[in-house]
Each structure stands twice: as C-alpha cells, then as structure tokens.
Design a protein that fits this description.
Helix content is 46%, strand content 0%. Helix 1 packs across helix 6 and helix 4 packs across helix 6. The longest helix has 25 residues.
Length: 236
C-alpha cells in the first residue's frame, strides 16, 4: 500500500463534509423513524444518544474560523458500530485506507447531531438502523456487530444492501443502509485521500493553452445529449 497519512479529523474538516454531503446525500430516507426499534425500550442495545442541541452555523460555515455550536451525540457503542459499518462500505485496499482512518464515522456522528431538518430526519433512522445491526449480530453470532468477522457482517448486510434483494419486512432498514452508504461515500470522497483514490485532479493550474475535454468526456456528453433528443454544439 502506498504511504498515506490520513488527516486528523477536526471541526473544520467535518464542516466541509457537512456542506459537501448536503448536496449529495438526500436521495432516500425511510418514511417511518422506527427502523428496528425495540417496541418497549427504544434504544435498548447501544444506549440512548445525547440530545441534539445547539443552534446551526447559519447559511454557510466560516471555514477560516471554524466553530460548530452543537455537540456530537453518539454513545461510544453506537460510534463503534458506526465505525464498523463505515469500514464495510469502504475497506482498506492497496490504494487508500479504510473509511475510519480518515474519520468518516466521526462525520456520521456530526451529521446526526446537527440541528437541521434533514439531519434530524436521518438521526432516528440511523440510530435505529445501528440498533438493528447490533441486535441482529447478537442474535445470529452471540457477539456485537463490531466484533464479528467481515464475512458475518457481510451476511447481515446482504439482507438490506441490494435494492432488488431486500428481505421482506426490512424495507425501512434497507433505506437506512442506503442513506448511510451515501453519507459514508460523500464524506470519504470529500477528503484529500478520497479524491486521490479516484484520481481527481481538479483545481490544478494548467501551463499553456487549455487542451479542452478529453475524447472520452466528449463522447459521454454527446451520448447524454442524444438521450435527451439534443445534439452536440458545433465545434465541440
């Protein structure tokens, strides 16, 4: 594996992630918040998270003077399951470290603790989804989700991870996983490590005349326009 020194997660980083993920991470949410909830005790396995409190930071975060006026609210057991799930979605490979190496689980905690409507809708769904993972692991393998093997975790996730193979009755839990996966990917690929992973080289000055888009990019654009009944501009 190449030498990678993941950045230390700080509030400036999570502010950037919040701003980035807000753009990409709203595609699917469960319609009901009670995913996997214990009917009598609610948060019965991983403990009750702290209350969401504090105001927002306004329309835009001040990245020169970063300050997040709310506290993270996950319990240590919740954060541990959240970390294990992040690393199942983005494990370490020969190019990049696992999601937790750049603090993606910390971003998830930041997200569910934020006082905005979208995050508050996700909050209950994610907490109950983590509960479902922990209880299912305990029932199936007599150990917590973070303590079982990758293959055992994969077996649990196979029940909810694929839209065409969701186990009946787990549709809301599948929606939790879909949103969690979106958040994990948004956070990871907002970091320097994630951008390097996909070969992103944007915001790099070019010496000399601008060469224009690649033939592959032009072909993709032409196909997209054709599918919409449009044609490429002359000279493109």
């Amino acid at each position: 594996m190449k030498d990678v020194s993941p950045p230390i997660v700080d509030r400036r980083t999570t502010l950037k992630w919040l701003a980035s993920a807000l753009v990409t991470a709203g595609a699917a949410r469960a319609q009901t918040p009670g995913v996997g909830a214990d009917a009598e005790t609610g948060f019965s396995v991983l403990g009750a998270p702290g209350p969401a409190s504090g105001p927002g930071y306004g329309r835009d975060p001040d990245l020169l003077n970063p300050a997040v006026p709310w506290e993270r609210t996950m319990t240590p057991p919740q954060l541990r399951v959240a970390a294990a799930l992040c690393d199942m979605i983005i494990p370490e490979d020969e190019i990049s470290p696992a999601a937790t190496a750049v603090g993606v689980h910390e971003f998830i905690d930041e997200w569910v603790s934020a006082p905005y409507p979208d995050q508050q809708r996700d909050r209950e769904m994610i907490f109950h989804g983590l509960e479902w993972l922990e209880r299912t692991a305990s029932e199936s393998f007599a150990a917590g989700f973070a303590d079982i093997s990758d293959n055992e975790r994969a077996g649990i996730l196979d029940r909810i991870a694929f839209a065409d193979r969701v186990e009946p009755g787990l549709e809301d839990t599948a929606a939790f996983f879909h949103q969690y996966r979106n958040l994990t990917l948004s956070a990871f690929f907002s970091t320097e490590v994630g951008r390097t992973d996909i070969g992103y080289i944007g915001n790099v000055p070019i010496a000399g005349e601008y060469p224009g888009p690649t033939p592959e990019a032009l072909a993709h654009l032409e196909a997209a326009l054709t599918s919409l009944g449009l044609r490429m501009p002359d000279g493109a």
